[in-house]
Automatic annotation (TrEMBL):
Keyword list, A-Z: Bacterial flagellum, Cell membrane, Cell projection, Cilium, Flagellum, Membrane, Transmembrane, Transmembrane helix
InterPro entries: Bac_export_3, FliQ
UniProt family annotation: Belongs to the FliQ/MopD/SpaQ family.
Membrane-topology descriptor: Multi-pass membrane protein
Chief place of localization: membrane
Pfam families named among the record's database cross-references: Bac_export_3
Full protein name: Flagellar biosynthetic protein FliQ
Entry's localization field: Cell membrane; Bacterial flagellum basal body
Record function comment: Role in flagellar biosynthesis.
C-alpha cells in the first residue's frame, strides 16, 4: 500500500464525513438563526430557548436524510472492504 493510496482513502473518509454532517449542521445553523432573529425581535434573551428547536430540527433532518446517510456510509464501507485485496496485494 503506497502513501498515495492511504491519503486517498483518508480524503474519501473526510469527504463522506463532511457530506453526512452537512445537513445536520445546516439544519442547526438555520434554526439557530431563526431563533436568534425571534429573540432579537421579542427581546427574549433566554439561552435555553435555542436548544429545543435545534434538537427538533436536527432530529427531523436525521429522519428525512437518514436513509441517504446510511446508504452513503454503507457504500463507502462496502467499497473499502472490497478494495482490501488490491490494497494488500
Amino acid at each position: 500500500m503506497t502513501p498515495g493510496i492511504v491519503v486517498d482513502i483518508g480524503r474519501q473518509a473526510v469527504e463522506i464525513t463532511l457530506l453526512m454532517a452537512a445537513p445536520l449542521f445546516l439544519a442547526a445553523l438555520v434554526t439557530g438563526l431563526i431563533v436568534s432573529v425571534f429573540q432579537a425581535a421579542t427581546q427574549i434573551n433566554e439561552m435555553t430557548l435555542t436548544f429545543v428547536p435545534k434538537l427538533v430540527a436536527v432530529f427531523a433532518t436525521m429522519v428525512v436524510a437518514g436513509h441517504w446517510m446510511i446508504a452513503l456510509i454503507t457504500d463507502f464501507t462496502r467499497r473499502l472492504f472490497e478494495s482490501i485485496p488490491t490494497l494488500i496485494g
